[in-house]
Design brief:
Blueprint: H1 2-11, E1 24-27, E2 36-40, H2 45-54, E3 58-61, H3 78-88, E4 92-95, H4 98-102, H5 107-114, E5 118-125, E6 136-148, H6 149-159, E7 166-168, E8 175-182, H7 190-195, E9 200-203, H8 208-217, E10 220-223, H9 232-247, E11 252-255
Parallel strand pairs: 2-3, 2-11, 3-4, 8-9, 9-10
Antiparallel strand pairs: 1-4, 5-6, 6-8, 7-10
Length: 266
Amino acid sequence: MRELVERFEQFAPKTWAEPGDPVGLQLGSLDAEVHKVMVTLDVRPEVVDEAIAVGADFIFAHHPMMFHPAKNLDLAVPQNQMYATLLQHHITVYGAHTNLDSAPGGMNDWLAAALNLQDVEGLVPSNGVTATSAITMGRIGNLPTPTTVRQFAVDCKRIFNVKGLRLVSHTPDAPVKRVAVLGGSGGPFYQTALAKGADVYVTGDISYHPGHDMIAAGLNVVDPGHHIESICKPHLQALFTQWAAENQWPITVVASQLNTDPFTFI
């Protein structure tokens, strides 16, 4: 569906992606006939099975299917078998990662809106080759009503529908007004959140030693996981459905119903 991809790349050009990020066509042909598009966070074997079951012939994913090149095509490797299955069923796969993260009205604006942030600004300048100063990863803004670090973390569990999260803080009763958020693995950018006045930084995949550094720097961090980026699914479905109606594209857009979070809290 070349027309859909071209329209999306006006919204979030590939050249806004971070250097080395493998965005764009992942497998198949953009000239293939498309009737049903499935949007998803991840492309995993179970997601491909779901696409086949619902009759999708185009998978649009936030996380690129091929972060790392295949070293061989041994079909005993589940990932390689997934590629073969996609080809067998003539399913095209496209990935939009950090270009969607940085796009105005994209991933990080969806996360900021979910947190009900006000007076929202960009957080980290994009390194995309055509990105301007207005193109940024992450957002920072103010809560309409101040709360505490602990209560804000509880609110994040509800907002992002997660069973558990990690709170990096020595001051859980401290007040919170200003919040930074960056979908995915935003740990390396915590000093920018601190410099911009964030009381709390919401991001995923915080590791042990950076967690200590964040506490030492006086920054509270809520890590609800990487999977909160699944917020993209209803938003992409609505966006693509709107574009299809405006352009009279004969396609149906569905969202993957699967939870591809590899972590379970027990």
